[in-house]
Amino acid sequence: MTDALADAPPPPSPPGRRNPLQAWFGISLWKRILAALVLGAVVGYFWGEGATSLKWMGDIFVRLIRMMVAPLVFVIIASGVAQLGDARRLGGIGVKTIAMYVLTTLIAVSIGLTIATLLGPGVGADLHNAAPQAVAPPKSPAELFIGIVPLNPIKALAEGETLAIIFFAVLVGAGVIVAGRDGEPVAKLLASASEVMLRIVGFVMEAAPFGVFALIAVVTGTNGPETFLHVAKLGVCVIIGAAIQTFVTHAAVVRLGAWLPLLPFYRGCMDAILVGFSTSSSSATLPVAIRVAEENLGIKPSISSTVLPLGATIGMDGTAMYVAMLTMFAAQAFGVPLTLADYALVAITTTIVAMGVAPVPSGSLFVLAAVLATIGVGPTQTAIIVGFILPFDRILDMIRTVPNVTCDLSIATAVARWEKEIDVEEYLSKKDV
């Protein structure tokens, strides 16, 4: 009798009532993340410095998604290239992708320079109390180029060298294509590994609301909204620029480049936008971006697995825009006159160095010295600018990471449309989610 009772199914829930877990998972993930973001801001505002006790939750979440980046990038790129079936297609997709990233980055830089020139955030800025912060000189273009080829692929994976991982993964995928039938077992292994990794990403993303809650609470509690007033004009510039790049430039890529409606795009990539905003890291957002590209936007793995990892490394629209604004800020604060040629030089230099920025929080500050040097701002003055911005940079970083994320997904959508590697019906199904 006891065994029979033990084996009996649990009684059904009363009609009209759902299990709390069912109710929780029944809510779209992006809505749960958005609610957590708002709640975290409220808690951080009222709790103040005490919110730092939640930091461990945010740190664990960031570590979880960063844990996925290196293995995910390798298996999905290698698998994606292998699925192309023709190495020449890879070259065509690569040229289109890089051309689009260069174009959107140039537009972002132009927007940054224009807004900063019109609003003048550096005019009258008081830098006397800024504590200088030394910034290591950025790598030269030659060093960045050489670093693409890893001496040890395993070491590159261990240290998370994204460009080196991408290079090696492309070679592996191309090798599978050339091997033909002999390479089919490896192709199947890579495809299976990609599917497994994306499922793990799905598991990790269920922790996103809790991680986002903690991250936002800590940022709000330690900085406080009043601290943002010190860089209010620069903050306004960043918000306006990010909004224009996200909702005008990237909207044009989707609407005019892919000939697709916009609402499903922004609904479909909301998870990635919110994670990018809370973590301030394009790299940490990559696993989520790949997941939403395939599951929400209907982009086939052959495109998502090649375009998005590349974009997480070189698709830095928000970063490029911000570096351009900081350059104008420095020129205005130090009274450096700029000619039209200077503007052109800043635009070209920023576009180049932005593609080498580490996709981590405050990564843009590490390349600022290279751009400021083109207008005659020396290392000492650069250190003062960095010291002035650094205390508030995390808040600004959260804002400018959003266009980094939408840049990657909009270009992936356009390239997938051009290559006929997108399920349009699945894309449109997100219109009413």
Describe, in plain words, how this protein is organized in 3D.
Helices cover 74% and strands 0% of the residues. It starts with a helix and ends in a 5-residue tail after the last helix. By secondary structure, it is mostly helical. The radius of gyration is 23 Å and the shape is globular. The mean pLDDT is 82.
Spell out the blueprint of helices and strands.
Blueprint: H1 2-7, H2 20-25, H3 29-47, H4 55-84, H5 87-119, H6 141-147, H7 153-159, H8 162-179, H9 184-205, H10 208-227, H11 232-257, H12 262-268, H13 270-279, H14 282-295, H15 301-314, H16 317-334, H17 340-354, H18 368-372, H19 379-389, H20 393-418, H21 424-428
Helix pairs in contact: 3-10, 3-13, 4-8, 4-9, 4-10, 4-14, 4-15, 5-11, 5-15, 5-16, 5-17, 5-20, 9-14, 10-13, 11-16, 11-20, 13-14, 13-20, 14-15, 14-20, 15-20, 16-17, 16-20
Please name the defining characteristics of this protein.
single chain; 433 residues; mainly alpha; 74% helix; globular
**Mind summarizing the main beta sheet?**
none
Assembly context of the chains = single chain
Low-confidence stretches: none
Distance between the terminal alpha carbons, to the nearest Å? Answer: 48 Å
State the share of residues found in helices, binned by percent: over 70%
Mean pLDDT: 82
Q: Bin the strand percentage.
A: under 5%
Instruction: Give a count of the beta strands, DSSP E runs of length 2 or more.
Output: 0
Taken in chain order, the helices and strands follow as HHHHHHHHHHHHHHHHHHHHH
- Which radius of gyration do the C-alpha atoms yield? 23 Å
- SS field, number of helical segments: 21
Structural class: mainly alpha
Shape: globular
